[in-house]
Amino acid sequence: MNPLEERIIEEGIVLPGDILKVDKFINHMIDPELFVKLADEFYERFKNKEIDKILTLEVSGIGIAFACGLKFKKPVLFAKKTVSKTLGSDVYTSQVYSFTKKINYDIMVAKEFLQKGERVLIIDDFLANGKAIEGLVDLCNQAGAKVQGIGILIEKDFQPGGKKIREEGFQLESLAIIEKFENGKVVFKESIS
Amino acid sequence: MNPLEERIIEEGIVLPGDILKVDKFINHMIDPELFVKLADEFYERFKNKEIDKILTLEVSGIGIAFACGLKFKKPVLFAKKTVSKTLGSDVYTSQVYSFTKKINYDIMVAKEFLQKGERVLIIDDFLANGKAIEGLVDLCNQAGAKVQGIGILIEKDFQPGGKKIREEGFQLESLAIIEKFENGKVVFKESIS
């Protein structure tokens, strides 16, 4: 098992509804040194691609995207879910459906920060139905930026997002792929390292 | 001028209503290498204090708090503004008034992640009226945790938050202190390094 899988086994909690609670090291409290190791692993998997910028989505993608920005020595752009006085109106917008909350919400990036021809690595914490990732890809398409790869911490293999994104031809790398939950335990699809 | 002040002069934009737009390197796009330098500066200022945990508030505090977590080699806890299925109900809650949005909102941390006796360094991006910082201090007080210091990227000296927090006896360190905005330009209170 790799360090992320080990930590999930040690500290992840399976909640009803196939929800994996990883609040202790990803979604509420963050272990920065773990994230640096995981960014190193993303670097190994994407080092043959030219990357100009890391793109993620607020809130819980920011920590791992920051660690990747450090490793790749590139700026980190986080798409926003709410308008603000500083964001302005000159933005690309994509609508994302949340299966968890059963609502549509908009994600936005300022046009000035996502340029035509830029080579983007998308990073996020979870991949399940893939709607947030599709929204980030859509923002890149609107800008004429090129998605060079997609890096995910935890993918739920029993939900359709990963398969769809791979079929579209993207290099999708997930550091922990969950095949199923069984009796409150996590079963990984395969050991990665 | 220190690296943060230099960057504010180069890339910050003063908007009507005394709003400083730093979306290019703090609030929307992040420069990870700048944040590492700023975390080094926070470390210099707080290295005599015992720190067990970095506490910040989602969203835009997460990047700099992460950089501090790396430098101090401690976990980063970010207070949440919205409830979620994984957060649960066993939380400390504090109400914060937003002068920008003219609304009250709740900030929350899970009780299991903020323990009695823990020594906390609070980190955030902006300090103006100080309501968010007061909320974070309140969460620590509820938990019986001890606030060892407060580190801020940009403080607006012409708004009352900083003075009040210093009068309460906290070690408050702001890396860029803005005295005023004048003809669309930023005037710093003093050069720090």
What layout of secondary structure does this protein have?
The structure is a homodimer of 193-residue chains.
Chain A: H1 3-11, E1 13-15, E2 19-21, H2 23-27, E3 29-30, H3 32-46, E4 53-57, H4 62-72, E5 76-79, E6 91-98, E7 103-110, E8 119-127, H5 131-143, E9 146-156, H6 161-167, E10 172-182, E11 185-188
Parallel strand pairs in A: 4-5, 4-8, 8-9, 9-10
Antiparallel strand pairs in A: 1-2, 6-7, 10-11
Helix pairs in contact in A: 3-4
Structure, briefly:
Chains A, B: It comes from Miniphocaeibacter halophilus. The structure is a homodimer of 193-residue chains. Chain A is an alpha/beta fold.
Give a structural overview.
Two copies of one chain form a homodimer. The first copy, chain A, is α/β, with parallel strands linked by helices and 193 residues long. Helices cover 31% and strands 35% of the residues of chain A. Chain A has six helices and eleven strands. The first copy, chain A, has helices spanning 3-11, 23-27, 32-46, 62-72, 131-143, 161-167; strands at residues 13-15, 19-21, 29-30, 53-57, 76-79, 91-98, 103-110, 119-127, 146-156, 172-182, 185-188. In chain A, the strands form three sheets. Chain A has a six-stranded mixed sheet, with helices on both faces. In chain A, strands 1-2 form a two-stranded antiparallel sheet. A two-stranded antiparallel sheet of chain A has the order 6-7. The longest helix of chain A has 15 residues, at 32-46. The first copy, chain A, is globular, with a radius of gyration of 16 Å. The termini of chain A are close together. The model of chain A has no long low-confidence stretch (mean pLDDT 95). Chain A binds chain B through residues 15, 17, 19, 21, 23-25, 27-33, 35-36, 58-59, 62-63, 66-67, 69-70, 73, 75-78, 80, 85-87, 100, 109-110, 113, and chain B through 15, 17, 19, 21-25, 27-33, 35-36, 58-59, 62-63, 66-67, 69-70, 73, 75-78, 80, 85-87, 100, 109-110, 113. Chains A, B: Keywords: Glycosyltransferase, Transferase. Chains A, B: It comes from Miniphocaeibacter halophilus. Chains A, B: Its EC number is 2.4.2.22. Chains A, B: This is Xanthine phosphoribosyltransferase.
